[in-house]
Specification:
Elements: H1 2-37, H2 39-59, H3 63-76, H4 80-116, H5 122-131, H6 133-148, H7 152-176, H8 180-206, H9 221-242, H10 244-252, H11 255-268, H12 273-287, H13 295-322, H14 324-328, H15 339-354, H16 356-364, H17 368-393, H18 395-421, H19 428-450, H20 456-476, H21 482-495, H22 500-507
Amino acid sequence: MSDIFLKKIAKGALMVLIGIFIAKLLSFIYRVIIARHGIEEYGLFSLALVVFSIIVSFSSFGLHKGIVYYISYFKNKEEDNKIKGIIYFSFKLLLTSSVIASILLFIFSETIAVSIFHNSDLTLVLKLMAIVIPFAVLIELAYTLMRAFHLVKYIVYSKDLFQNIAKILLTIIFLALGLQLKGIVLAYILAIGFSFLLTLYYFKKHILQIFNKALNIEYSNKILLLYSLPLMLSEGISLIYLWTDNLMLGFFTDARSLGLYNAAIPFAQLFYTFPFALMMLFFPLLSGMDFKTQRDEFKKTYITVNKWVIAINLFLLAMFIIFSKQLLSIFGPEYIEGSKVLIILSIGYFLTYTAVPPSNIMLIFRKTKWIFLNNLTLFIINIILNFVLIQKYGIIGAAIATTISLTILTLLILIESYILSRINPFKINTFKVLISILLVFSFAKLTSTLIHISSIYLVILFSLLFAFLYLILLLVTRSLEKEDFMIFKAIQDKLGIDLEFLNKFIEKFIR
């Protein structure tokens, strides 16, 4: 049974991973275009995005994970009338909440800009972004439903590809027309608007037709809200504490400091790419399993996914530490002074995103209140740390405060997920992975000391060489197991290829 689950994860996650990789690449190009236009404008736009993201999150009432959970649950029970009820209720609630949020942000945009962030230029930016809040909220609802029905390729088409390409093209056009910051914001909201239309088309074609047949709608509002409301507070607080550094930098410092700090953020957020791709498939599949009767399958899948996350993200962490200055130079030479921020944030984001699989254990066991209490605790700690450290150390202080907070959160998640499942997500092979990356890091650090690696092209070339060395070490230390090899074969099947020679070579090292 677990082999079937693992193959589903590999095949589904491959599509998602490709989509996310393209999205991250396009999003990175988008940020580089804005950052190279001016460090102050980049900082100001980044701050506006933080405010926008927090409002969109609260307007969504935390329904997204609840929707995925209960649609998966009701699908297994073949209760389509309840699924239809979830869709109808979610749409009505989120449409209402997002319109109210849009109006409130538009009215209070000047107060937020001047009284809190001491920058009147932010007023127009917030007013423009307020207009698109309902579209952003409803798009995310549509993506959630597509995820619940395993239609992730349409998320890739609409969100990862179309929306990001639209942002880039419109930004280039508006900047060429001399619209400056206003053009950057207009490009952003128009891209969301166009993406909304495409998403609406996919939604009507592939989800609404499922319910064309007459069904007596049975609403499950109470259980959905009881599951989701703690998540709304939790995710809202989580989003705030993740962006506390930006918000408090906006309050205590200037737009230039925000620009420097936000050059490191896109790199640090890459640690979420692989865990997110896996969890899009991992969470619905495990939500549909009976933990008591399928514990072995649950445990096997959970541990394997956790090991993949650690192995991939450890390599990213090593490369970011060694090549921090070269990576930031992509944004422009003035951003290199933020290299220490990138290193510090990378450690924090690595730790917290390594805990993505364990954190989903609490969702599967419906312990949403635990998640809320975790985030509330970290919210308070992060505010205190940022308040103290930013005033003393500036952007370095913000990075240290965030990393300390994320480390505490990771420890809480690991302890609580073990209490619930009694499953240790770390095996002896996980520590073999750690030994392998330490050897690669030492060799890479020595190489970068002996050879002057300055251009981004050399960074890419040497990173590929180090990745190959890492793979060899994983094989030699026998860190990989038959479950990992099965995933590798499943990916080949998905791509329609057969790497027979490589398969035979890897099989020699599989336990």
